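LAB NOTEBOOK - FOLDING QUEUE
OPERATOR: T.R.
BATCH SIZE: 2
PURPOSE: Compare the predicted C-alpha cell outputs for two unrelated chains run back to back under identical settings.
PRIORITY: normal
REVIEWER: second-year student, initials M.K.

ITEM 1
FIELD SEQUENCE / FIELD STRUCTURE:
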Amino acid sequence: MAKNFYLTTAIDYANGSPHLGHAYEKVLSDVIARFNRMRGKKVHFLTGLDEHGQKVQQSAKKAGVSPLEFCNEQAAKFTDLCKKLNISNDDYIRTTQPRHIETVRLILQKLFDKGDIYKAEYKGFYSTRQEQFLQEKDKVDGKWPEIFGDVVEITESNYFFRLQKYQDWLVDYIKNHDDFIYPRFRAKQVVEFLREPLNDLCISRPRERLEWGIPLPFDESYVTYVWFDALVNYISAIGYGTDKFSDNWPADFHVIGKDILVPPHSVYWPIMLKAIGVDMPKSFLVHGWWLSSGEKMSKSLGNVVNPLDLADKFGVDTFRYFLMREMNVGQDSEFSFDLFVTRYTSDLGNDLGNLLNRLLNMGGRYCSGKVPQAKIEEEFETELKKSAAETADEAMRLYEGMQFHIALEKIFNFIRGINRYAEQRAPWKLAKSADPKDLELLNTTIANMAESLRISSILLAPIMPGISAKILKLIGASPVESFEGMLQWGNSLEGAKLAEKEILFPRPEQKAQ
C-alpha cells in the first residue's frame, strides 16, 4: 500500500499569540494539502503547539497559573486560528500529550544507550530569550544580536548529543540531494553554516533551573531542551516505534520559516533522525517573512497584523487569496493594508465577483435562469476554450512547483478574459435582436461564461475552498472533490439552474473623513 502524502508545519510556540506569519504557514500548508487531495492522493496534514521551555514557565508564573493551564489557553488561540482560516489539518499535536512525551523519552534512551548522549560540564554564554547556549562566533561586530536578548555567562553540568559525529555525513547528504531543501539557495546557507566544526548539542536543562519540560529517562533531575523535544513532534504524532509509522513517514514536506531552518531543522533534526536510524524527510519547504516597510513584523515595532481581524472583515477566502497571491514561496513579501484592499476590490470584486454577477443577472433575464445550450463555434469561442485549456494546464503545473502566486496570476488573467469575451459578444445587445442566429449566439455566450467560470472555480478550490464551492453552487454545478475529469471543457452545465444575483465581495465600508 502506498504511503500517505505527509505534510507538516512547524509547531507554534505557546509563549506567543497568532500573527500573520503563523497564518501564512498554515494557509500555505493547507493549500498544498488540498491540492494533493484533489489530485487523488491520501493526505495526512499535521500541525500543533510547542509547549515546554523556560519562557512558557516564566509567562505562566507571571500570569499566576500553572504552565499547563497557560498552554491550554494558548492552544485554544492557535486551534481557533486553524478553524477560522479553514485549515484542513488531520491531526493537532501538543508536546504535553502522552504520545509525544513517551516518544521523546524513548528516543533519548536510545541515543543514551548508543553512546550518542553524554554528560559534561559546560561553561559559556546562554540566551534566555532563545533558550540556547551561544558561542563567541554568534556575536556580530563583537556584540550579541538583538534576537538573543539578555545573554549571561553560566557554568553547569548537562547532557550533550554528539552532533559533530554526524557533521560530514550531513554535508554530503545535503550536497547529494538537491530536493532536500527548497528553495535550493537555502541549502547553500546550511552548507555555509556547516563549514565550521559543530559543537555537540546541549539537550538538557537542570530541573533546579527549569521544571517545565520532559524529564530525561536516564536522569530525572534534568528536563529535555525544548528544541530537541519540539522536533520530535513530526514522528511522535504518527506513531514512531509502531507498525503505523510507515503509513506516513518519510514526510513529503516539512513547511517551516527561514528563521528556524539553521540550525534546528537543517542540522539538529536530520542528525537526530540519522542517529536513531530513521529515513530523512523528503524535503523542507522554507518560506520567507512578511515585512512591513522592509522590516520583519514584530511586537516591538508595533507592526504586527492580526490575521483574524482581516479574515473577519473581508472573509476567510479573501485573506487566503491575498497570502498566496502576494508571497513568492521562499522569498520575503511586503504586507500593506492598501495592497490588501486593492487585491480585494480589483481581482476579487471587479474581476471574479463582477463575472459571477453578470452571468447570474444575464442568465436570469435572457435564459429563464438556466444555463442554455452552446451551439455556435466561432473565433471568440475557440479562443476562449483554448485559453481555458492552457490556463488549467499551467495552473496545475505551477501548483505542483509551489509557484502559487503565478498560478493565481494565470487564473485571474483567464477570468479577465472571460469578461472580455462577454464584452465581445455583448449579450445585452444580442437580446434585442430578432435574428435567430443572434439568439443562438446569446445562449452560447451565457453557456460559455458558465463553463469558463466552472473551470476557474475548480482551479481556485485549493486556495479559496469556500468561495469555489459557493460559486459552483450558484451556477448549478455539482460539488467537486477531485480535479480528475473536471478541468476539461464539456458544456456540462447545460440545463443547470442559475441562482439569483449575489455579491460575493461587497465593497469595504469607507471610513468617514
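ITEM 2
FIELD SEQUENCE / FIELD STRUCTURE:
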Amino acid sequence: MNKRWKKRDAAKEEIVLLLMSELNIGRTLASLLVQRDVKDLESAKRFFRPQLNDLHDPFLMKDMDLAVTRLQDALESGERILVYGDYDVDGTTAVTLVFSFLKNIGASCEFYIPDRYEEGYGFSFRGVDFAASEGITLIITLDCGIKDTEKIVYAKQKGIDVIICDHHNPDQIPPAYAVLDPKRPDCAYPYKGLSGCGVGFKLLQAWCLKRDYPMEALFEYLDLLTISIGADIVPITGENRVLAHYGLQQIGLKKRPGIEAMLFQSGFKKPGLNITDVVFVLAPRINAAGRIFSGMQAVQLLLSETIESALKISPALEENNNQRKHLDKEITKEAVEQVLSDPKHVEKFSIVVYSETWHKGVVGIVASRLVETFYKPSIVLVKDGDKLTGSARSIDGVDLFDALSACSTYLQKFGGHTMAAGLTLSIDHLEPFKNAFDNEISSILHQQLPIQQIEYDAEIDFDEVDEKFHRILRQFGPFGPSNMNPVFLTRQVVNDRFTKTVGDTKTHLKLHIKQKKGGNKTLDGIAFNLGEWSEHLLSGGEADILFTLEENEYRGNVTLQLNVKDMRESVVHEVSQG
C-alpha cells in the first residue's frame, strides 16, 4: 500500500530561536517542542517536569459537588455501594482503582463487571437486579452509563441512586443522581481527554479534597490509571501526561502483584515499562479476560494482594490471550478474504464484513487489522441472537461517532469515540446500513479514496543523533496520541553491513545503515513488514526512510535503534507533499 509522506507544519521561527537560546538545544529539538505548545522556559519546565500539583481542580467538573456529597452520605450511613465497570481495560482498571480505594477507607462495597456475551457493553438491567438483590442503594458506573438512560431509570425505580463516571460523548444526559463526564456539553472542566478510569479518579480526588484526606493514598493507584490511559488511546497531553508520568514511575518502583504476575507470565524482563509496553504487554492480557472469559477475572488479578495469589490467576489470562491471538489471526484472514471477494471493494470508501461464526470478543481487533490492511474505516459484525453487533475502527480525518450518527436510522444502538465505536443493528438493516455508511464516508472524504499519510516532524542527518539529542528526546515521553514519538526523515541511507531479513516469514528487516553523504555514523534499526527492501539495500541501493528513535534491550544491553516506519528509493526532490 502506497503511503504519502508529509512534513508537519513548521514551527514559528522566532519561538524556535527563543527556545534554542533559553534551553541551549538545537533547532530540531526546539521545533519539536514548539509543536507540543512549549514556547518559553516556563512551559518547558512544566513539560519536562510534570507535577501532580498541576492537576485540575476536580470540582470544575459538572455535578462533582453532588457526587461527592452523595458518596459521603453513603459512607457515613453505611450504605452498600456497587462499583460497576465495563469489561475492557479502561473499565476493569477503573473498577479496581475505585473499589480498592473505597474498601481501604472502610466502605461497604462490591464490584460488578457485565458479561460481554449475555449482557453486552455498558450498564445492564442484570447489574441493577444484582444490586437490588444485594441491598445496594448506590451504584458508581465507570467507563459506561452515559448511554444507558433506560437502565438509570430502572435503577431509580428500584430505589438505587447512580453516579455516572464516563468519558464517552452523550446523546442526552441520563437522569442519574450525578453525571460526571467532561464531554457533556454543559461541563466546563478544562481537560476533555480523560479515560473512564480518569473520571473515577477525579471523583476520589474530589472526595479527598473535601474530607482533607491524604492525597498520597489515592496516588498509590496511578499505575492502574496509567494502564487505562495507554490502553484506551486517549491523548497523552495535559493532565493525562502528568498522571501517566507518575504512574509509569510507580510501576517501575513497586509493581502491583497482579501486574508483576502478568509480566512474569509474558516473559517481560525489562527493568521499567513505557507506554508501548503497557499497550502491547499488559493491555492485551487484561482485555483478553473480558474477550474470552470474563472481565471479573482481570479485576480479581489486579486486586491480588500477594504475588502468590496473583500467580494462581495469571496463567488463565495468559491462556485467554493466546486463544485471543489465534482467533485474531484466523478471523482476520477470513475477513480479508471476504473483502477481496467483492469485485467492487477497491471502489468502496469503507469496509463492513459479517459472519455468523466469528467470535464476538475479537471483532474490534479484527477491525483494526482491516484498517491496517486496506486503510479504510472498517466494521466487523457478528450474529448476536436476532441482531448483529460489532466494532468499528476509523482512519485519520473520519470521526466514527459522527459517521454512525448520520446512519443512526439503521442502528438500534451505537456509541464510542472518534476512532473506535460499537454498534448494534437488525439483520434486515445490514445492506441499507452498509450503503448508507459508505455514502457517509465518501461524503466525509469528499469522494476521494483515502491514502494513508505518514506525517514526519523533521528531516535530520544521522550525525545529529548523539547522546544529548536522545537524552532530551526521551524526556518528551510518555508518548501517545497527541504526543507521539517524533518521526524523522533521513535521506540517502545505504547498507553498511549485517542488514538482513528476520522473522518466521522473513517479512521484517534488521538494519545496520549509514548515510551516503558525509560522516561515518552507523545506526541499527528494525523495519517491520518492510523485508522486501533487503534486495535493494544489499545491492547498494539508496533509500529515504521515516523512523522513530527507541531503545532496544537485548540480554541486558540497551542500545539505540531506529524503528523504520516506511522506506522509499532516494529522490532528489522534496517529498514532504507526497
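REVIEWER COMMENT (ITEM 2): Residues 53 and 242 are 9 Å apart (CA to CA).
FOLLOW-UP: none requested
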